[in-house]
Amino acid sequence: MGLTKSEIFTEEQNRLALLFKILAHPARIAILQYIIGQKACICNDLVEELGLAQATISQHLKELKSIGIIQGTIEGKSVCYCIDENVWKKIQADFNIFFNQEVKVNKCC
Amino acid sequence: MGLTKSEIFTEEQNRLALLFKILAHPARIAILQYIIGQKACICNDLVEELGLAQATISQHLKELKSIGIIQGTIEGKSVCYCIDENVWKKIQADFNIFFNQEVKVNKCC
DNA sequence: ATGATTTATCGTAATATTACGATGTTAAAT
DNA sequence: ATTTAACATCGTAATATTACGATAAATCAT
Is Electron transport given among the entry's keywords (chains A, B) (predicted)? Predict the structure, then answer.
């Protein structure tokens, strides 16, 4: 028990759920908003900005990178993170495809 | 440790993360798609359709209800579930507001 | 070379999630 | 009044997530 039964769902359902899961944490939302707001690729500032430990921020960045929504570029001794515009748009498009499935017919309620 | 530090984030960030979290499970995606696909408010069928235990489905339905995206109406001895059109649209709008923040300027990457 | 800075990774404690059997609860059917 | 059907809830085992200190790795400054 306790293990999500991915094998009984479609690839699409698993993929969409995974995208939602990566975004399902306020720190990761905050990280994305901060990167966007700075119009630049900040990195260590996030630790000071958010008040979470460096290890924690690094872990969140790793998860965001795992779906490609951000990219990290090494610049000297620091790493510059930025949004991957294409992935960002693709995720938005996928969410909208899901939400546009909606039909206006309800047999009850 | 292990507890999300909600107090250090904005209400908006916490709310958005919560919405993503509720949708971050393939069973809940599948439930929503099934309800939409049937253009009706099914209930116990989900147990047979998805192959998860009745208690498990009931728990997922409870979570979906918690953000109002579905509604349950008692009809005799069964409960008919359907999408709440307004909440559905509101969530889609909130996601799009988030995704439309994107700026095209990247100082690195 | 040494020390400082920045980030990643490891290990782990605290907490949350997922799944399900067992057990209630309610309403229709007999 | 029983029985049956459909759900919800409780309790709990298995697993996942979150957070952080400690430590490693890489690079810059001295």
Answer: no
